[in-house]
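Supplementary Methods. Inverse-folding protocol.

Structures were first reduced to a discrete structure-token string of length 632. This string, shown here, constituted the complete conditioning input.
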């Protein structure tokens, strides 16, 4: 691995201690710093301030990287996927059991609900340090100062956007806190979003467009501003910002990078390759988290481990009942068709796509879609892999070297984990430094111009301008080779289908479904995909209240949509350890019990449907002027 000097690192705040070995000095009681890096000498200029924000950038990367990456929790409670780990008790299948306030909510073998709570507020804390100390530093001009502040506003808003859609009303922190605090209160989510939108307007004005990869750019601020504007019903502002972004950042419509010369690839392989995410001529990428190949300290994304089938399992047998696959092949087979591990990665099937993602969204209009299941270069299934177990060859078994065939008697639990299709063009990440190819080091898209077009399409949908919505959708569809849609084709289902096709393992799908659900409930627009059902805010999480685990349909769009599209939840699908179940109130997640119980001098509300909600009080409102934790 290469060693590099990272220009912007986190300046540690040193502990101040007593020198215990200076008895001869008259000043031996004076505090001696263990490091010269203290807030007083680190946060003195723009570079020092940006160094503090690297903690936010690093933590954003962790949402996508590593085994059981947190984004998986965001995906498995939606229409596109479920938890696929069927060999143990604990993984999030029956949400009535696994999504409880006092359950283990931050564990690789369970879920990462607690991770988002903990790390969300940790990122807010880091951003607040910069915001609180912004005028303690010296800048070359006002523009530099405001660019730093805008980047900090973005990082804070990035966390709040997830938190208010995952947990609803939450504590609001807007200033550096330097002493223990046990009197937090929940704040109204709408007022939090109003404040974030205001700050993002500032960020969008001042943050520069051209920045180092992984840093906050003007367009990243614009995308988040669009999301908050849409959440608050300001669709015109979202469209205005979206048009400004795509004018500067057009979609990549021609093949690029060295991948264009590789056989059996297409533009989608180019766009989602490591090379594309490193290519500074890539106009489509708006925000990235970064991890660079062969750079010491970089993370492995482990995407193929998480999101491709467990084809190496012992239950993948030949039709005549013999062990069919091996992970590592002989040297002379490396890179050949028999190298399942090298060509597709060594998956364990944590993230199991639904029939909706694998089949439903791919219609006759997508027959030529490069992103879809009809393109056998882009999508793969176990039938594309080969029986490569050496004992088959040595015994002369006729199945050696042939494509896998699904065992006729494969158990439900085994098929969930080991037999499904996946978007190979997006999920394959070279992993050259490890024998088991699980997904190596790569930057990863957070925002792309493609999503901007899809958000604009949704804004036009809310405004009942369906011709304009179809035009925006078709920018993304025709680039991929799909047939264009007409105004008559546009509804919320068409928009969500397109987001699933384009943004799998990029978007935080649960967050976006909840945002749409709140919009329906707030503006009262009839939902055409559910017989013009009208949703309301006053029964958003269901009528049952504390501990009811309500199952009634129709209290929020999220529940109706997930149950309608996901072929696992509430369909009687049972594994050896659990049945897949979801309830109305799972639209919002449980606030971890320890966050509430340790807050002894305040009240953090629990969401309706979970134990503890009976203790709720009305949430506070973020003030229009001044701060909550800092200067009034």
């Amino acid at each position: 691995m290469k060693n590099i000097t990272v220009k912007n690192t986190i300046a540690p705040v040193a502990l101040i201690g007593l020198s215990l070995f200076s008895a001869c000095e008259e000043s031996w009681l004076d505090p001696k710093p263990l490091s010269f890096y203290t807030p007083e000498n680190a946060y003195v200029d723009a570079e020092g301030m940006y160094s503090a924000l690297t903690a936010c950038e690093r933590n954003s990367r962790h949402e996508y990287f590593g085994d059981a990456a947190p984004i998986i929790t965001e995906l498995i409670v939606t229409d596109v996927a479920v938890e696929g780990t069927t060999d143990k008790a604990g993984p999030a299948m029956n949400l009535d059991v696994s999504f409880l306030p006092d359950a283990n909510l931050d564990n690789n073998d369970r879920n990462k609900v607690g991770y988002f709570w903990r790390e969300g507020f940790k990122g807010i804390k880091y951003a607040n340090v910069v915001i609180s100390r912004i005028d303690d530093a010296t800048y070359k001009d006002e523009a530099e100062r405001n660019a730093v502040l805008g980047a900090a506003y973005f990082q804070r808003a990035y966390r709040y956007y997830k938190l208010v859609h995952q947990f609803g009303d939450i504590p609001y922190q807007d200033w550096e806190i330097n002493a223990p605090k046990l009197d937090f209160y929940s704040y109204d989510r709408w007022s939090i979003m109003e404040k974030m939108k205001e700050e993002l307007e500032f960020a969008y004005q001042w943050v520069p467009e051209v920045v180092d990869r992984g840093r906050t750019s003007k367009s990243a601020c614009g995308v988040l501003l669009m999301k908050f504007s849409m959440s608050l019903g300001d669709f015109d502002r979202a469209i205005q910002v979206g048009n400004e972004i795509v004018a500067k950042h057009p979609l990549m419509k021609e093949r690029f990078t060295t991948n264009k010369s590789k056989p059996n690839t297409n533009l989608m392989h180019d766009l989602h390759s490591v090379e594309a995410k490193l290519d500074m001529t890539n106009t489509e990428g708006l925000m990235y988290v970064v991890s660079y190949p062969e750079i010491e300290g970089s993370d492995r994304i482990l995407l193929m481990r998480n999101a491709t089938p467990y084809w190496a399992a012992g239950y993948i047998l030949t039709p005549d009942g013999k062990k069919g696959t091996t992970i590592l092949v002989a040297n002379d087979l490396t890179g050949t068709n028999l190298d399942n591990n090298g060509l597709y990665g060594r998956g364990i099937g944590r993230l199991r796509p639904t029939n909706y993602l694998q089949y439903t969204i791919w219609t006759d209009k997508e027959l030529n879609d490069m992103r879809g299941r009809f393109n056998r270069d882009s999508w793969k299934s176990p039938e594309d892999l080969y029986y490569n177990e050496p004992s088959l060859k040595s015994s002369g078994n006729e199945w050696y070297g042939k494509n896998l065939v699904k065992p006729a008697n494969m158990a439900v639990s085994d098929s969930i984990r080991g037999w499904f299709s996946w978007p190979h063009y997006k999920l394959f990440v070279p992993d050259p430094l490890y024998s088991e190819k699980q997904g190596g080091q790569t930057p990863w898209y957070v925002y792309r111009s493609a999503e901007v077009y899809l958000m604009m399409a949704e804004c036009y949908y809310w405004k009942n301008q369906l011709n304009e919505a179809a035009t925006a959708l078709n920018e993304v569809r025709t680039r991929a080779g799909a047939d264009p849609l007409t105004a008559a084709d546009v509804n919320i289902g068409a928009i969500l289908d397109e987001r699933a096709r384009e943004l799998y393992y990029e978007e935080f799908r649960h967050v976006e479904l909840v945002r749409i659900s709140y919009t329906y409930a707030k503006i009262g627009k009839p939902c055409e995909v559910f017989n013009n059902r009208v949703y309301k805010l006053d029964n958003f999480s269901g009528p049952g209240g504390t501990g009811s685990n309500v199952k009634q349909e129709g209290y929020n769009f999220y529940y109706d949509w997930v149950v309608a599209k996901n072929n696992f939840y509430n369909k009687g699908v049972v594994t050896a350890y659990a049945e897949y179940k979801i309830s109305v109130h799972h639209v919002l997640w449980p606030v971890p019990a320890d966050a509430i119980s340790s807050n002894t001098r305040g009240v953090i509300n629990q969401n309706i449907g979970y134990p503890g909600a009976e203790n709720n009080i009305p949430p506070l409102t973020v003030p229009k002027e001044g701060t909550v934790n800092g200067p009034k």
